[in-house]
Automatic annotation (TrEMBL):
Residues 31-43 have a biased composition (Low complexity). It comes from Priestia endophytica DSM 13796. The lineage of its organism: Bacteria, Bacillati, Bacillota, Bacilli, Bacillales. Residues 1-29 form the signal peptide. InterPro entries: DUF3500. This is DUF3500 domain-containing protein. Keywords: Signal. Coiled coil: none annotated. It comes from the Bacteria. Residues 31-53 are annotated as: Disordered.
Length: 389
C-alpha cells in the first residue's frame, strides 16, 4: 500500500522538490556529485535518495520561540497546526500533509537525513514565519520539560555540524509532518523527526490522546553552544542508572538480561516487536527507596508529554496492578560510559529503554565518547492505540 497524501502532487523524475526532500530541496545520495533532473514515478517518502542536502541553522528562530511567553504549553494545538499550515505554499502543504494511516504513522526514523528519509518538510527549507509557527505548535504540544528535550537535541545536532564540519547534521535537518486534518472532530497526528529525535503526538480534535512512540538521543552526551552547557539525555540516563547503582549484587544478578544489545530493541521500524517474555527483576522485589527511583526514572520520559496526558499515563503506568508486573533489566555493563551498556523498564503497557552507543562523530582515541539512544513506547497506546490489535 502506497503512502497517501492529503494534497495531490505530480511526480516528475528520480529526484523531487517537496516529495522525498523538503520543499524547494532536491534530495540526493550522499555519495553523488551531480543531481539528476528526473523523478521516478515510484519514489515515495522514505525510499530512493536520502534527504541529505545541508540546511541553514534555525537556532535564531528556535531561541526566539523558546523565550517567547506568548505560546504556552497546552495551548490550542489544533489552531496552531492550522496556523502553521496557513504559512505554507501549496507545494509545501503537499509535502507536509498526509493521511493518518498506519503506514504513514509508522514512517519515522532517528537516523540522520543522509541515511534515511522521513515524512514532511525540513524546517531549514521553510521561511522564518513557518519555522516559528512549527515550533510554537511543538512547544504547545509538549510540556516545558518536553520542549527542552526537543530543543536541546536539535542544538546537539547544530553543535555536531559546527564542531566537525560535517553536513549530514544540523538544526535545519529536522522535519515536520501532519497526518490527518487538524479539526474539531477526528484524530490527527503531529510528527517531528530528525537525528536522535522522533515525536509522534496524536490528537482527537483539540485533545491530546497519544504521546508515543518517542525516540530521544544525543551525541555528545554534554556540549557547549553559545556559552551554555547542555546535556539532553542526562535526566533519563541518571534516572535509569541510579536504579542500577542502588541494587545489591544479588539484585543485579536477578535483573541481568541474558542477551546483549547494540541498540534499543523497539526503535524505528520495530513497531509492536516487543520481547515475548519479560526479563529482569520485578518492581515488587525492590525496596521502597529503590521503587521510588524506578518511578522517578519513568517520569523522566513521561513528563515530556503535556501535563494532562502525562498524568493520565502515569496513573496507568504507576498503578499497583501495573507495577506488580513491571520489570527492570540491564545488560552489557552497569557503567553508562561503556558501549553496549543497556537498561530497560518493561511493564504491561510501559516500555522504556536506553542503550549506550559507540561514538559516530567522535571515534578517535582522544574523544571516543559513548552516546545514547532511548525509546519510550506504550504497548497498547502507541499512535493512540489506533493501530494496536
Amino acid at each position: 500500500m502506497k503512502r497517501k497524501k492529503l494534497v495531490g502532487y505530480i511526480l516528475t523524475g528520480a529526484l523531487s522538490v517537496g516529495v522525498i526532500g523538503g520543499a524547494g530541496m532536491s534530495a540526493f545520495a550522499a555519495s553523488d556529485t551531480t543531481k539528476s533532473t528526473t523523478q521516478s514515478t515510484t519514489a515515495l517518502p522514505g525510499e530512493g535518495f536520502p534527504q541529505s542536502e545541508p540546511k541553514d541553522s534555525i537556532l535564531d528562530v528556535l531561541n526566539q520561540v523558546t523565550e517567547s511567553k506568548v505560546t504556552q504549553q497546552g495551548a490550542n494545538e489544533m489552531k496552531l497546526a492550522n496556523n502553521f499550515l496557513s504559512t505554507l505554499t501549496d507545494e509545501q502543504k503537499s509535502t507536509v500533509q498526509y493521511e493518518f494511516t498506519e503506514e504513514n504513522a509508522e514512517h519515522w526514523t532517528n537516523l540522520p537525513a543522509n541515511s534515511q528519509n522521513r515524512n514532511g518538510v525540513a524546517l531549514g527549507d521553510l521561511s522564518d514565519e513557518s519555522i516559528e509557527a512549527a515550533l510554537k505548535l511543538a512547544k504547545a504540544s509538549l510540556s516545558k520539560q518536553g520542549y527542552e528535550t526537543l530543543t536541546e537535541i536539535i542544538k546537539a545536532d547544530e553543535f555536531l555540524t559546527t564542531d566537525t564540519g560535517r553536513t549530514e547534521w544540523g538544526s535545519g535537518l529536522y522535519y515536520i509532518a501532519i497526518l490527518g486534518t487538524p479539526s474539531e472532530n477526528g484524530e490527527w497526528m503531529l510528527q517531528i523527526s530528525g537525528h536522535h529525535l522522533a515525536e509522534n503526538i496524536v490528537f482527537n480534535g483539540k485533545e491530546q490522546v497519544g504521546a508515543t512512540p518517542q525516540f530521544t538521543g544525543s551525541e555528545p552526551q554534554t556540549f557547549e553552544l553559545d556559552g551554555t552547557t547542555y546535556s539532553p539525555i542526562e535526566t533519563r540516563r541518571d534516572g535509569m542508572y541510579s536504579i542500577l547503582e542502588s541494587l545489591t549484587t544479588n539484585q543485579l544478578n536477578k535483573a541481568k538480561i541474558s542477551e546483549t544489545f547494540r541498540d534499543v530493541v523497539v526503535g524505528a521500524d520495530k513497531d509492536g516487536q516487543f520481547p515475548e517474555e519479560s526479563e529482569g527483576i520485578l518492581y515488587t522485589d525492590l525496596t521502597k527507596d529503590q521503587q521510588k527511583l524506578v518511578q522517578k526514572a519513568i517520569k523522566a520520559w513521561v513528563k515530556d508529554a503535556d501535563s494532562k496526558t502525562a498524568n493520565k499515563l502515569l496513573k496507568a503506568y504507576l498503578s499497583k496492578e501495573a507495577l506488580a508486573k513491571t520489570y527492570i533489566g540491564w545488560s552489557g555493563s552497569t557503567d553508562y560510559n561503556e558501549v553496549g551498556s543497556y537498561v530497560r523498564i518493561d511493564g504491561p503497557r510501559l516500555w522504556l529503554e536506553i542503550a549506550s552507543q559507540e561514538g559516530v562523530a567522535y571515534q578517535d582515541d582522544v574523544s571516543n565518547d559513548a552516546h545514547f539512544h532511548t525509546v519510550w513506547r506504550d504497548k497498547l497506546m502507541d499512535y493512540a492505540g489506533e493501530f494496536t490489535e
